[in-house]
């Protein structure tokens, strides 16, 4: 398993999917060369991920907040998330909860599992075989300038299509 960070979330207007982009925490194979894993998500999922990334607090609890509140009241918390499979453009994840010394493993959509992990600062991992099958190279020409990096990255993502993931 490799740890990953959320690189960015690109929110699109419906009916176009939004894109959650994960980046493995690893040394690049060559200077300036990295890998990314784009995951297409729906508008509702992107909204939940955006709320988690921004650490936003709303007047009333959203579904993920309710779930975490229930976990807290059961003396449990999110331990970690593993993106454990990909079939075509569909990703699969396992959400692992910890309650005292007990680990509870649940099947989950990556968007839900990651939204929960972000809210509790729990680690996110990807299986190495999934990383190999679903990642794309991303190359920095020079030391990345934040604005140039973001513009280049958006261009790269705009050119991706779900068909690129069909194997």
From TrEMBL:
Coiled coil: none
InterPro entries the UniProt entry points to: BFN_sf (IPR036104), Bi_nuclease_dom (IPR003729)
Gene Ontology terms, MF aspect: nuclease activity
Listed SUPFAM superfamilies: Hypothetical protein TM0160
Protein name: Bifunctional nuclease family protein
